[in-house]
Fold these 2 entries.
Entry 1:
Amino acid sequence: MSRVLVFVEDDDGVVTETSLQALTMAATIGKVEAVSVGTSGMGGWQIEHAMLTDYAPAAIGEALAQLVGAEMPAAVMAAGTERGNEVMAHLGALLDLPLAANITRVVQSGEDWKLTRVRWGGSLLEECTLTAAVKLATVALHSVEAAPQGTASPITVFTPELTDAHIMTRVIERVTLTEGITLTTAPVVVSGGRGVGSPEGFGVLEELAGLIGGAVGCSRVVTNSGWRPHSDQVGQTGTRVAPNLYIACGISGAIQHWVGMMASKTVLAINTDAEAPMVTKADYAVIGDLHPILNAIVAEVKSRKGST
Amino acid sequence: MKTLVCVKRVPAPGARINLTPDEKAIDARHLSFTVSPHEECAVEEAIRLKEKHGGTVTVMTLGPADAEEQLRYALSVGADEAVLLATDGADWDPQATAAALTARIKEIEGSGAFDLILFGNESADSGGYQVGIRIAHALGRPVISGIKGLEVDDETVTARRETDSGSEVYRLSLPAVVAVKEGINLPRYPTLPGRLKAKKAEVISGPASASPGGLFMDRLFTPPEQKSVTNILGRGPEAAPAVVDLLEELGLM
Ligand SMILES: Cc1cc2nc3c(=O)[nH]c(=O)nc-3n(C[C@H](O)[C@H](O)[C@H](O)COP(=O)(O)OP(=O)(O)OC[C@H]3O[C@@H](n4cnc5c(N)ncnc54)[C@H](O)[C@@H]3O)c2cc1C
Ligand SMILES: Nc1ncnc2c1ncn2[C@@H]1O[C@H](COP(=O)(O)O)[C@@H](O)[C@H]1O
């Protein structure tokens, strides 16, 4: 079977869930060898270099290029994370090889790979053919369920040759925020669109979110109007969320918004327009002006909480 | 400060995507066109750098002749120069796109290198996450992606990237390449004088040189919709008790 190197990422020495997904997809097409910078707990190739003290995409790309040159695998894969896509693009540029970003499926077809990959952040899919001496691909997040991995393979240390130029692009400072409930971790997201009408209009969304342990989200019209910071934006060019409940208030349901919240378990739409795509796609809906509706919901939540 | 921004013309689909009969493209007959929000922010960032440090902003696109519309938009908000690499309209793979843009950038840089070349983090339609990085390697310049904050001094660019737990800072020597994300700034709208100026401005147009890479699109398709029947809980504030019943059911109370 052909050898597939998988660049894996770790959290303090423990391989990440998305890298496990990449390993799982890679195992459907070849014999997998994990590659990590420092330890990932997976064994396999371990890239070590005195200058690699923190994340440095160009240097890691260069190290992978040298490893590919030495080992000539059939393919290199990674998770379609920010770092995975970045490191693989460096590798593709260095070796002048094509890179298929964010694939959801791969099958061998003669010398080629037939792939399905994500476009438009997930609202469109593409079937494509990858023709290359060494195939490069990243695996779209959550496109496969991570299979349990066996015992770790033995570690082989690989020491690349790196220069100052490779290492120039690296993390030189890190700022850690300790936030409470964030958009990505909240069990409920109370999200508002153009229909909220103004920055002040978000007051009642904040109040409801506060009462039920949720976070406030919004659409791009809202951030573009300067009503909320971009960190609140849900969608293709914002944050992806997957809460138990997504409450979409005055949001029409454009696909670029929908791809950001379609993984929500339950969707409740509040909208004046019963024909709005958000309403027709939602599990539950309330039709009408969102402000009196949200005020009534807040009052009802308070009274039930008060009576228990 | 000479800055170049690369943008890509894409259709702006609404609530659903319709495809052409050959399944090779989005049926855009009834759609307007735009660029990725990331790229809008790249244009805005370049204009802010010009306002702060002086210099010029050039915008460049590889696409059909109609992509002039997106270049004129950039001119209307403050870009100085626009360059179109004309194609027949078919989507080019990332290697071919990067090679054609690189060749044109090298020509233009005969009269002086760009201090900074800005890209969107990923194109809105194909989302390859790579054109900027390929061009940076071809030009031998440092590059960083996913940037939501930029500061430039005489010799370096300091760039901030957000992570799940906070942010990371990178510092690259100029000339450099940076791919930015929406949220780095709030783009301005064009003014009327801006629009008039852009209408009259010259767009430097020429053919793009094709050298296809190894990734070939066969067909597009939309993901299956898991259609659920919408349960209408009611109209107006009278629906509140039903909503709170739902919150209780979901264990959110
Ligand atoms: C490449 C690209 C990327 C994009 N990325 C994103 C993204 O990440 N996130 C995102 O959100 N968008 C994104 N967009 C924009 C997207 O296409 C839509 O323009 C946007 O989502 C619409 O926001 P909206 O639903 O708030 O506004 P609208 O579409 O204007 O909808 C407003 C809704 O509010 C309802 N309404 C009005 N008044 C009331 C009221 N009083 N009470 C109740 N309901 C009311 C209306 O019936 C309507 O349904 C992107 C677009 C492109 C081209
Ligand atoms: N056809 C194009 N013309 C100009 N710039 C492009 C083109 N395609 C991609 N880019 C730039 O490269 C970035 C990344 O594109 P991609 O690698 O396709 O995700 C985009 O955000 C643009 O800034």
Entry 2:
Amino acid sequence: MKKIFLALLLVLLSFEASFAFIPPPWRWGIGIAIGGQMPISAFGSLPQIPKPVPSDASIELTGVEQGRVIITGFQCEYRGDPNLHASNPDEIHLMPNKIPFVIVLNSAKGSLSQTTDGRRLGPGRYYAIIVSSKGMNEVMFGVD
Amino acid sequence: MMKTLITAGLIFLLNTGNIFAFFSYDSRNLHHKIDFEIGGESPKSHGIIEKPVLADAQIRVKAQGRIVITGFFVEYRKDSKTGDNSPIFSQPGAEPKIDYYRIHPIADKAPFLIVFDAPNGSLSQTVDGKALEPGKYLAYIISSQGMMQIIFDVV
């Protein structure tokens, strides 16, 4: 009897643990690759494009077959270990004087150079959110 | 031996929830409270603008430079237990919280984009010139001072 009780408790606790991992429904749909690289996700980190990309790198979206997609974000400073692929959110700091960038895509493919104001992204590290009718996602990437 | 193994497993699993909660990423430290109003109303601490606003509501932001607002159409799913339609839950003496799992995107509605220079703008300043349809929106306000997630209702 004791063993059954313990087994049930273990199952319940496993469920509880797994629920901590499931993102809300509006964060399910969209994937992004920049410069042909998929972001790396690790425990406790923001998804990050592993290597810096040029300012005209390609963008490929998954989970978005048609319709408008908005990519917007800002340049930020990373004070963590630069050798780590993943970004520790606690080490990401805002750079107050940088203008947010906006890219609007009408298909699943585009380029980082398609900013609405025509300005190329300067070298540095960026935080971006990707918004479509299916919800949003976020990514960190570097521009060299 | 068996008891020790079971106890060790139990302790591990008891801690697993905390470990996962600790390791699951959270970008909220990038979210800074931006002082702003839509239709004369500021968002509450949990990011919800409680009163519905008009599609041409004025936006005022206490910030400098370019402001980007982007978001998408959402609906609230009813709580299966209580039948409650609001994702906000509050307990006496505590700050209200949002149950984000009950907020679902409506896939056939295009996301909107508003760009303007602080401090004044309007919800009607969409990049494609289309007015926001009545409904609920989950949106992000992005400025050089940071970003903020909000939920608002257009009538």
